[in-house]
Endo-1,4-beta-xylanase 1 isoform X1 (Nicotiana tabacum), 946 residues
Amino acid sequence: MKRLTASSFARRLFKSNSDHAHSQRSNESMEKPPVITADSFDSKSPKENRENTGSYDAVNIIHNHDFSEGLHLWRANCCSAFVVPAGSGYHKGITEDVGCSYAVVTDRKECWQGLEQDITSRVSAGCVYTISACVGVSGAFHGSTEVQATLRLVYQNSETSYLFISRKSVTEEGWQILEGSFSLSTMPNQAIFYLEGPSPGSDLLIKSVKITCPSFTDYESSRPTSSCTDDEKIIVNANFDDSLYSWSGRGCKVVCHDSMADANINPTSGKYFASATDRTQSWNGIQQDITGRVKRKQAYEMTAVVRVHGHNVTNADVRGTLWVQAADNLEQYIGIAKAQVTDKDWVQLQGKFLLNDSPSKAVIFLEGPPPGTDILLNSLVVNRAAKPPPPSPPVPENAVYGVNIITNTHLNNGTNGWFPLGDCTMSVKTGSPHTIPPMARDSLGAHERLSGRYIAVTNRTQTWMGPAQVITDKVKLYLTYQISAWVRVGRASGPQNVSVALGVDDEWVNGGQVEVSNDQWREIGGSFRIEKQAAKVMVYVQGPASGVDLMVAGLHIFPVDRRARFNHLKRQTEKIRKRDVILKFSGSDSGCLLGTPVRVRQKQNSFPFGSCICRTNIDNEDFNDFFVKNFNWAVFGNELKWYSTEAQQGNFNYRDADELLNFCYKNNIEVRGHCIFWEVESTVQAWIHSLNKNELMIAVQNRLSGLLTRFKGKFKHYDVNNEMMHGSYHQDRLGKEIWANMFKKAHELDPSAILFVNDYHVEDGCDTRSSPEKYIEHILDLQDQGAPVGGIGIQGHIDSPVGPIVCSALDKLSILGLPIWFTEVDVSSKNEHVRADDLEVMLREAFAHPAVEGVILWGFWELFMSREDAHLINAEGELNEAGKRYLALKQEWLSHAHGHTDDQGQYSFRGYHGSYEVEVVIASKKITKTFVVDKGDDALVISIDI
């Protein structure tokens, strides 16, 4: 979906995999973690429980567990209770001397009456808890009676349920140990633990109660009683100075260490670190409850120091995640940060998060490595995110646009200035094109014809071997450079990929790719930008298989003048997005209309400008306000995807999609359906992978009929099968015809919806799999099979866009006569001014091209986009330079006019398509009317009765 630089390629994978990970997690959150045996516990303090081995026993979440403080925090349920002090000699039916305090629950008239304690703040969903209670009975009964442990769970709507834990048959002969375990799949508003059960009239005796989770901490004492101030610590015991106090394991054990692995692993700061061990699932890790310590609509930053440890694992991804539960028990997982972590060194894991709503529960945790790999944590801190100072617009010194920075492009001096990358041979030959490649002609300044000479590279033993130049001193920061060349390959067994690459220190940057066949000169074009000073920048041409000769002619690299291009696009926009309008006034009150003042204001441009939104976004009223005012189309980020609506086979969840649809309809926002299927294998949920061919075919048919029948007529578009140029999961398993059949069936089920193909890297020249030529071939093939393809989706995740390259792709695709939409536009730069320029390039190119019928941004709010440094508004609602540029363009594309009527009572103007309001003043009376300017080549005559 984006330019395949070394770093952005990884981000591309992370986007797909993170979407997929959340689908997997939705499965996992419905399953109980494996049962874990609790460690033994005694009443020592947290520090005293740390042994020389670094282990730490489970912490009892029951307060006043041995009644040493009387009945403090305990409550008798519709009966009476008192505590027998230690050594009092009062044993009431217990024959042995207990030597300690115990509680007596008496005046019991029902078997359910007993002693209870509220443990809401000390339990979390997804953890397994073990109970051990020392109980006895006394009273007039024969034989034995049962004592039972139960949880009373109260939910938001006051619905109450009871969770049975365990029961024990008890006699008057002595104390018995009641044991059991429980786990909560979702968090209630209130969780009450109580002991009950003996027959009415008998007394329940309780000596001690322990509820433990491996290394679980006392949440109640670590939680604030009210929302914290900005200066209070959000993470308690962040450096493990107090062992594992306030930390616990999420489905696993956690252990505190001062060193491990024979003292080869030591804390990088402080005295201790923690490990999450005995991990059986990727989501297992170390966690802390931060409920009540974070506020909605405030940005927070997490910084953790982590590493991994395990057999046969030297590196793994570690993720920081926030689990939140809303008041209605809806769960959400918020990805905060991700880093590649090794077993050699401590690594900093850093990222930001924001809550749109106030959760009833919030837990931060680390996860990610494969099962069996320990996560080590030295420290974890969460603070309010600092606001960076506003950036200055970069002003490159002595920028000369359209001037080539490559030495000896025409090869007048042989190969002077060039060198072979690798052990290959370079020579100069003649017979290449004399004209500059088409995509460069509009951007390049005054230039001479090419010489017809080219570099021939032979004896290539690696794909990366080719001609190279060092251009370090010629590249200026923040300038966008266009790349252009002719390339050709020698005799080969099939088409070969050729690319222009840049080595920027230790990073590889893709400067353009093209597929080349024998005896063909092909144009290659691309772009790049450098935003931090590099010690070395090298450009080289590479790609064909080893043993295949490579030929390169007329390589040009030059900075582009975007302002000059914008002027050209403004003229194009005037031609295709505006229409001549004649307002013809008439009516009984019109009298003599000559010279009547007329004021025309456009209320809304009808061109579709939309954005991706997610369910959690609409909990933020500031987000809603900006979205409704500035967009007229929407697409859902994940809520309609198959892995979201059917994470587990047969269990359907359309709640989020329904809520987003209702929000859009309420605000007159049109909606695209994204997507019915996603062809990339990594995005397919686990249960689908387990199906055989026949079962998969049935699942595909059920997905089509279920989704399109339920939402018939509600989505104007559907992306039928996302990214077919980059994946073939369903086709590989079900045959070539399945793609066309998906389109046919979708059209049959919802004939009103326009059915789109949708893919990435179509517009930037850097991916041969989805070049415009390949995309056209793909669409024609679908149509030949009868697929009713109605629209072309270009995602538009792009780096350093260059107008002529984008326009060239649009020109090629327009020959199909189908509407083109940019469906997922985002641009990325740390500097807001550069980001604004990139966004303007994409919006102007789209708006000025007659084949483009809509633009959807892939989000606009910080922390809710798939790419970093792509937002228009920061996390706390402040508009940045890119956002200001978007609003300025929206304002530019509204037409306003004022003047006077002519002697025929008419007023003429040329305006953008959309809705208008006209105001005229006659005989001191102001009259306001509305009208709409739609598309058309002829002048639109609108009669207005006044």
Notes: The chain has a mean pLDDT of 88.
